[in-house]
Amino acid sequence: MSSITITFPDGSQKEFSAGVTPLDIAREISNSLAKK
Question: Which domain of life does the UniProt lineage start with (predicted)?
Fold first, then answer.
C-alpha cells in the first residue's frame, strides 16, 4: 500500500498509510487536537 508524508511547520515529517483521515493524523499529533 502507498503512503503519504506530512511535513509539519517545524520541518519534522511523519509518514502515514494511504487513506489516512485528517482525524487520524490529528490523533497521532495529540489527542486534545483531535477533540477540537
Answer: Bacteria
